[in-house]
């Protein structure tokens, strides 16, 4: 006769589920079945963190008695229900093998590596259509720019967009264009982006060209402990479509840091440009950013840079 394991507590997605009735001769596969009944996360999607499993036996060959689980042990689980995954991607024909990373805590799995968010990026790569305005040029790096509060004060009142333009905008874009193809990515709709870029004279400038615009439809929503549910701009969408660009040769400017949470190393948070009428004569952020862009062009691999120190 085998002893009872006692209640186990599965922590998943902010909730706790009590699993009871298991005995020591039950296996990890039995445990996962029990977890499935409570959470609807398929066993092959479950990643149970904190179990002391030695070796790489299949789940159904690992008896719970070998794991030295104490009653009321809390086990962190990662995994996504099929219906949630189905919302963002078609399920793969073959389920990938889930590796049990038993020694890592949930918090250590960075947002940018989460399976469910990467699936959303894949979906954007497949479904989001980019309208090329000017073909990418060979050998150029990639500069991705936010609009609101980055290039333009979208809250102040004015007669024309030009009045709300950040100082040095055209000088900045002209200098950047020597080394970078330029992409504009705004969390608004395409109509607004075009209106603003036309109004600022960016779309028709003779000294530089914009490669393409991305709008809010190219963004994905992610859930983070710090911010809750937020929409972000994952550069993986561009990198998936244009293989010449990657973290090694891309830089993104935005006044909101969480916008580049899926590629934290590639983003540079700039000071927002607000109160245009008041700050027009004082703001020199784009001038300084222009110098920074020129400085880093001698670096072959941007992924070694720490943009937080950009002003030094
Ligand atoms: Mg902004």
From TrEMBL:
Query: What is the enzyme's class at the highest EC level?
Result: hydrolase
Q: What is its EC number?
A: 3.1.3.16
* InterPro entries, sorted: FCP1_dom (IPR004274), HAD-like_sf (IPR036412), HAD-SF_hydro_IIID (IPR011943), HAD_sf (IPR023214), Ubiquitin-like_dom (IPR000626), Ubiquitin-like_domsf (IPR029071), UBLCP1 (IPR051658)
- Which SMART domains would you find in this protein's record? CPDc, UBQ
Cofactors that this protein relies on: Mg(2+)
> According to its record, what are the GO cellular component terms?
nucleus
Q: Per its UniProt record, what SUPFAM superfamilies does this chain match?
A: HAD-like (SSF56784), Ubiquitin-like (SSF54236)
User: What keywords are annotated for this sequence in UniProt?
Assistant: Hydrolase, Magnesium, Metal-binding, Nucleus, Protein phosphatase
Protein localization? Nucleus
Q: Does the keyword Methyltransferase apply?
A: no
In this protein, which residues make up the domain named Ubiquitin-like?
A: 6-84
What main location does UniProt list?
A: nucleus
Q: Which PANTHER family match?
A: UBIQUITIN-LIKE DOMAIN-CONTAINING CTD PHOSPHATASE 1
Q: What is this protein called?
A: Ubiquitin-like domain-containing CTD phosphatase 1
